[in-house]
Amino acid sequence: MTPRPCRATIAMAAILAITPTSARAAIAAASDTPPASGAASLKVQFPPSREAVLPNGARIILAEKHDVPMIAFTGYIVGGSLTDPPGKEGVASITAEMLRKGAGRRSAGEIAAATDGVGADLSTGSGLEVSYIAGNFMARDDKLMLDLIRSLLREPTFPDSEFTKLKSQTIEALRADKDDPSSMLSAYAAAFFYGSHPYGRPADGDEQTVAGITREDVLASYRANYGGDRLVLAMVGDFDAKAMESRLRSALGDWGKAGAAPPRIEPASKRTGRRVLLIDKPDATQSYFWIGNLGVKVTDPDRVSIDVVNTAFGGRFTSMLNTALRIKSGLTYGARSRLSRLQQPGTAAIVSYTKTESTEKAIDLALETLARLHSAGIDDTTLRSATRYIAGQYPTAYERSGQVAGALVELATHDLPLTEVTEYPARISAVQNAAALRPVIDRVYPQDKNLTIVVVGPAASLRKVLAKYGPVVETSIEQPLLAGTRTARPSTAR
Q: How do residues 91-142 score in pLDDT, each as one tens digit?
């Protein structure tokens, strides 16, 4: 495990890959072969769960699952990088990483040795809206597991030497990310699209903001944002739920509250008109592009219908976007539609890449496909295929205890019922009226006249091309991400 994963690794592997939303996204990467019949009867079975609220406000969800002698857990600390002070973007991420760098009587090496010595997994990190702790242990090692959970959450020591090392590694990782524009594109797009809104802050910060973070900033972030009232913990596996609740009450029930209230985020506004950000990467041989506007939040009432539309439009190999840009034209190896669904509306976007010389053709084709979605919607055949595909693939996203724990903590965090997962395939299969999806399409997906476009590639070859899509501002990939997007200057096509 590298000391400092890149932003894409943290976002997908550590947090989102275990949530219901991303389980739907995982469907997109699976086979396009639908089940033969009976999709509507499919139901995801979760083990019975026991829920409790501890005296300090911590919420715990416990589910017994005795098929294998393992215990998996996921805990969210509500807040995440939304708690980062302006100019200190990345401090929540470093704070969460530092939990494993020394806690209680153990050093970083001793924490790693204790975990590795029993063949367990233990991770901590932070995303946009939550920080997390997660792990998998053999049931026989439950005493060690509980002691590590307690000490990492309640007794981190934040050694100065480990902080200095992690800070340096983080800056180097952020610089290295720039060699892979695909890992940076979404962060640039969010910063440019949202501007000063908290959703525009990169969870990992950038090399400039991280360079300004001190150990005192980390201590202040921990004191303000870690406490029992911010914790939502789910545990699934081979244990007695009643006894485990008692043990967790002893370990966490008297943990004090966080020093500050959790952040409250106002919704962003949709952008009107067109605008383009060009991030100059002179050595790039490909262009990476993001086209979008504001979409919907995770609790949107039409979320099931939205999943069906998104699968058909850009969420599987045979989607409209991938068929147009890859299968038929060969312009790219992949084109997707991405919905960032958070506690407030995130973005709805088209994401792809192509050879620099075919940038105009690829963007034009993506826009044509978006226009066709609005003008024609999806037909009945595509609707049936998409619903059968989702309903058939979805249950496999919850085969492991860690996946179930992640789903339980995600549902609790957003105050959604368990049926959100268990009845999801049947609800998907109940979407049968293609015409009824037209209002959903128009509400969720951006209109041609109101688009934010972000492109990473060689500016010398792209300035003139991109000018046709709207006013272009330009920055260099060598600039720190936030400073670069905020000080981007109008591009002069030549």
A: 999 999 999 999 999 999 999 999 999 999 999 999 999 999 999 999 999 9
pLDDT of residue 424: 94
d(CA 304, CA 341): 13
User: Could you give the percent of the chain with pLDDT greater than 70?
Assistant: 91
For residues 4-20, give the mean pLDDT: 33
Residue 95, SS3?
A: helix
Burial of 138 (0-12, 13-18, 19+ CB in 10 A): middle
Average pLDDT over residues 407-413: 96
The answer, yes or no, to whether residue 231 has pLDDT greater than 60, is: yes
For residue 156, the 8-state DSSP code is B
pLDDT (tens digit per residue) in 145-175:
999 999 999 999 999 999 999 999 999 999 9
Long-range contacts of the stretch 375-378 (C-beta < 8 A, 24+): 377/434, 377/435, 377/437, 377/438, 377/441, 378/309, 378/312, 378/313, 378/320, 378/434, 378/437
Q: Are 390 and 307 within 8 A, CB to CB?
A: yes
Whole-number Å distance between alpha carbons of 462 and 477:
15
Could you give the CA distance from residue 148 to residue 480 in angstroms, rounded to a whole number? 36
Q: DSSP state, 269? A: -
pLDDT of residue 21 exceeding 50, the answer is no
In Å, what is the CA distance from 362 to each residue of 147, 288, 330, 390, 452? 53, 10, 10, 28, 16
Note the Cα 475 to chain centre separation in Å. Answer: 26
Length of the chain, in residues = 494
**Nearest CA to 290 among 177, 186, 398, 434?**
186
**Closest among 13, 136, 25, 118 to 73, alpha carbons compared:** 136
pLDDT value of residue 42 = 63
**To which residue do tokens 């090692």 refer?**
141
pLDDT above 50 (res 30): no
Residues forming a β-bridge with 64: 237
Please give the domain boundaries of the chain with CATH numbers for all domains. 7-252 (3.30.830.10), 274-378+434-490 (3.30.830.10)
- Residue 339's beta-bridge partner residues? 348
Which of helix, strand or coil describes residue 221?
A: helix
- Exposure string of 206-223, with b = 16+ CB inside 10 Å and e = fewer, is bbbbbeebebebbebbbe
The pLDDT of residue 29 is above 70: no
Buried b (16+ CB within 10 A) or exposed e, 225-262: bbbbbbbbbbbbbbbebeebbeebeebbbebeebeeeb
Q: Are 173 and 165 in contact (CB under 8 A)?
A: no
pTM for the full predicted model: 0.90
Distance CA 351, CA 348 (A): 10
